[in-house]
Amino acid sequence: MTWNGPATDRAPDDAARRPAAPAATSPVTLPPLPDEPLTAGLARAAADHGDRIAVDFLGATTTYRALADEVARAAGALVALGVRAGDRVAIALPNCPQHLVAFYAVLRVGGVVVEHNPTYSADELAHQLADSGATVALTWTKAVPAVLDARERTAALADLRVVAVDLAHDLRARDRLALRLPVAKARRTAAAMRGPVPDEVPLWHRLVRAADPLPASHPEPTSSDIALLQYTGGTTGTPKAAVLTHANLVANAEQGHAWTRHERGREVVYGVLPFFHAFGLTLCLSYSTRIAATLVVLPSFDPALVLAAQRRRPGTFLPAVPPMLDRLVTAAQAAGVSLHSFTHAISGAMALPAATAQRWEEATGGLVVEGYGMTETSPVALGNPFDATRRPGALGLPFPGTEVRVVSQEDPTVDVAPGEAGELLVRGPQVFAGYWNRPDETAGQLLADGWLRTGDVVRVDDDGFVLLVDRIKEMIVTGGFKVYPSQVEDHLRTMPGVADVAVVGVPGGDLGESVVAAVVLREGHEVDLAAVREWCGRRLARYAVPRRIVVLPDLPRSQVGKVLRRVVRDQVLALPV
């Protein structure tokens, strides 16, 4: 599956069928995109900025030259494992240097990266691993039991090679030694970073150390080759993989560079967003390499870790979600740490409150803007300008090289009048190639002439800014992660004592939204929050587990029997907390 070319390649009768003019235009011109794979950016950074620090992981540093050498050796290890061009390789890792190494090594041999949340349950991993057809899984040691469990219970995964990745291996030598100290703090840190690995599961760092580097003559992937399968719930909540090509990922990184105007070889990017998520993968992992930035890698978002890194290596660019910005300002003020080195921050995944933007800009003296996108757009499609015209609360203007339209919610071929609300369509070089092995769902989401249906209702104001009106999709966004109500509901319906359930999102403070389960109980049964959370925790990601339950006598339904989640949400909001 490949992307079919630039957005200007339209059918001859396209202009006759729908207006050609976009609803809003980009203020930035996109230079010609290079026809190259994503790996070319790392090779260029190593050649031009070989001595520059590429990665800082809790104080352990790696130069671009050393990173490129490590990727070549890791690529050799993958070939020794039997990975060939087109093979899918699963990566289930937190943020760490080996995540970068594995990512670029898979691409260098012509393989396809499949990113997974390392905290997923065995059931969630089993579905995604089997669906992608992954042949090798590079897995955090703490996630190895879940992957092995998934393999044991899924016939399609019988031949999956599982390789364990030890995060502690990326630490400085003195920090690795400190993990062995017989003190409580060392034991807690070690338990958080690593888990036991069965003898039959090889360790990644040993395979890489023993491997011969991949020869420079090994064929490079092409720009049209698939680079990444990124799982998303789309509009249905059923996990499916968005197919992103090298051209898609290169385009979005270059669009971001045109937007920020960062100078190559000068920036320090803070990698606090998870790399397994499309937002963190592009804005941190791939973007930093394209501009030869130093990437400060944090295994998870912890204000104390961020401030320790800020004292050691001050950052200049922070991709984040709004609660992170608020928590960092509060922590920095309490600790007396300056954030003035940050000149740019981009916020996504949820609306950026004006108060949060103001706090960040007052604390840093820099700018923070809101961006908008989805996995299917690699992921950024819109953004606010990094200047005085930025508008907190607005999705922004189209990224360079991106077109948008606002169409009727009933008929996507009909554009709405200027200023009216309608569904947002996006077209550009970052728009995905479709869903992996799902032609019907691809056809429903990706129109024949390259327009992507986002499922979000927007309007465009007189200044051309796109404003979010509502979500067609009923997903819940909590802490920057998407929760699909149907998945939580399907699991809760199997819980003893639950007759029916509707899952909704309500305002949740720093989380953005909080997951609430409205349940109808079977006669004679009682269910409390602790039981619901324990039941859900068996199969759902932690962020999808309800934080509150509400017991209702029945659920409101439409004439055709569909549960009216919006009515349920109103009922929940009307109840005392």
Automatic annotation (TrEMBL):
Residue ranges, compositional bias (Low complexity): 18-28
Domain AMP-binding enzyme C-terminal as annotated: residue spans: 488-562
Keywords: Ligase
PROSITE patterns per record: AMP_BINDING (PS00455)
InterPro entries associated with the record: AMP-bd_C, AMP-bd_C_sf, AMP-binding_CS, AMP-dep_synth/lig_dom, ANL_N_sf, ATP-dep_AMP-bd_enzyme
Ranges where the record places region Disordered: 1-37
GO molecular-function term, one example from the UniProt record: acid-thiol ligase activity
Keyword field contains Cytoplasm: no
Protein name: Long-chain-fatty-acid--CoA ligase
Pfam families linked to this entry: AMP-binding (PF00501), AMP-binding_C (PF13193)
Domain AMP-dependent synthetase/ligase: 43-436
UniProt keyword ATP-binding present: no
